[in-house]
Design brief:
Blueprint lengths: L6 E5 L4 H12 L3 E6 L10 E5 L5 H11 L2 E6 L14 H22 L3 E10 L12 H20 L4 E7 L13 H12 L8 H13 L7 E4 L7
Parallel strand pairs: 1-2, 1-4, 2-3, 4-5, 5-6, 6-7
Helix pairs in contact: 1-6, 2-3, 3-4
The site of NADP nicotinamide-adenine-dinucleotide phosphate has 28 residues, from α1 and α3.
């Protein structure tokens, strides 16, 4: 399929994976809108920056009105509320659900009437749902909810197709805060992962673009995790 003249809206532009999808789609000829809370940081050539906060429905409505018609929508923000369960703060849990679940629901609400024929949505889940770990309960729950949301919206918004991507550990910039411990974390991850490596933003971008383009895939979660959920 040709990406020429296809309009792709990506929300959660602060994510390293988002930026890679935006660059790859633009290089393939798509008209790309990259939306997030800090659009001044989205300076890639040929990509239109817009404001969107998944915790603020009015900003998502305004984005939909500004964009008008579209072919594809990808939402991949995350606001993890990790840590000991006994210290969990309600506001942090609400932000985590806004970024992954409630915000994407509101996006779908405002964008649904605007899809051209063949339109599709990709939501972002994550391996934590299938491999729960201590101090990651909120992450596991939001990611799990995304997989069910993709199934429910595939039925509710049909014929707009709705799928989810579930990445494993990906070198997207999200782990840079580990500092020197990052290399060791990636080495240990690669050791146990059936693919024997961590993921790249290119791996996830290719899977996302293929889900958007394939006209007969809907209601599916595609695991781009190197088999991590099986290890
Ligand atoms: N990287 C991995 O190893 C991995 C593993 C499993 C799943 N995933 C999933 O894949 C997706 C992309 O991951 P990533 O590593 O590229 O991203 P990331 O580094 O986790 O960044 C996510 C970005 O979401 C943005 N965000 C948070 N709350 C938002 C809100 N309310 N509205 C709009 N944007 C908001 C933040 O950017 P601003 O602060 O600039 O707004 C943040 O930098 C996420 O859903 C993540 O959970 C990633």
């Amino acid at each position: 399929m040709s990406w020429e003249k296809k309009r792709l809206v990506i929300v959660g532009g602060g994510s390293g994976i988002a930026r890679r999808i935006a660059v790859d789609a633009a290089a393939a000829g798509a008209e790309v809108v990259l939306a997030g809370r800090n659009p001044a940081e989205f300076t890639d050539p040929g990509i239109r920056p817009e404001f969107a906060d998944l915790g603020d429905e009015s900003s998502l409505k305004a984005l939909a009105e500004e964009v008008g018609e579209l072919d594809y929508l990808v939402t991949l923000a995350a606001a993890p509320a990790n840590g000991p369960f006994t210290t969990l703060e309600r506001d942090a849990v609400a932000r985590a659900f806004d970024a992954k679940v409630i915000g994407p629901m509101m996006l779908a609400k405002h964008f649904a009437p605007r899809f051209r024929e063949g339109g599709a949505i990709v939501l972002f889940s994550g391996v934590a749902a299938w491999r729960p770990m201590p101090e990651r309960a909120v992450m596991a729950t939001t990611n799990g909810a995304v997989a069910f949301l993709a199934e429910a919206l595939a039925v509710d918004l049909a014929p707009v197709r709705v799928n989810a991507v579930s990445p494993g550990i990906v070198d997207s910039g999200a782990w840079d805060g580990l500092g020197e411990a990052k290399d060791e974390f990636f080495r240990r991850t690669a050791e146990t992962n059936p693919a024997r490596r961590v993921g790249t933003t290119a791996d996830v971008s290719a899977a996302t673009l293929s889900l958007l383009a394939n006209p007969f895939v809907t209601g599916t979660t595609l695991h781009v995790d190197g088999g991590a959920r099986l290890s």
